[in-house]
């Protein structure tokens, strides 16, 4: 299973070991968990935290730098998933996905069981891949 990145809602003051960008807080976790367990871990960290929701290219670039500087993993979970298995993607904070940064050919739902999303290291953590949860 991949590592993961947590994010919080708007918060001008981040906890000690979290990073700040655009009034949100971020933390990279270097532990291997399923997507669902990673989301639970995020929710237990800080009030309002979830797996990271990426809403713009600028935020995507920030998260990619943060992950690149903190972890050597091939795959890193983000908060995007298809909870109803209808190829409609939602962030774990409940928002719809407007910004998209899929790797070429993705989402492909390989073997009809890829409903969670990871950052892919071979894209510099800028592109997304759907993956088995």
TrEMBL record:
Q: Which InterPro entries match?
A: C-type_lectin-like (IPR001304), C-type_lectin-like/link_sf (IPR016186), C-type_lectin/snaclec_domain (IPR050111), CTDL_fold (IPR016187)
Q: Where in the cell is it found?
A: Secreted
According to the entry, every stretch annotated as the C-type lectin domain falls at 21-133
User: What GO cellular-component annotations does this UniProt entry give?
Assistant: extracellular region
Pfam families referenced in this protein's UniProt entry, alphabetically: Lectin_C
User: What keywords are annotated for this sequence in UniProt?
Assistant: Calcium, Disulfide bond, Secreted
| Domain of life from the UniProt record | Eukaryota
Q: Which family does it belong to?
A: Belongs to the true venom lectin family.
Give the protein name, as stated in the record.
C-type lectin domain-containing protein
């Amino acid at each position: 299973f991949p590592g993961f990145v947590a994010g919080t809602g708007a918060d001008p003051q981040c906890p000690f070991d979290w990073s700040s960008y655009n009034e949100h807080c971020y933390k990279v976790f270097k532990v291997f968990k399923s997507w669902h367990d990673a989301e639970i871990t995020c929710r237990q960290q800080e009030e309002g935290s979830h797996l990271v929701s990426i809403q713009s290219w600028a935020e995507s670039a920030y998260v990619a730098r943060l992950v690149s500087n903190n972890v050597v993993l091939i795959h890193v979970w983000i908060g995007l998933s298809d909870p109803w298995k209808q190829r409609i993607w939602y962030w774990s904070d409940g928002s719809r996905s407007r910004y998209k940064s899929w790797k070429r050919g993705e989402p492909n739902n390989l073997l009809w069981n890829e409903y969670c999303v990871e950052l892919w290291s071979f894209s510099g953590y800028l592109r997304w891949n759907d993956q088995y949860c």
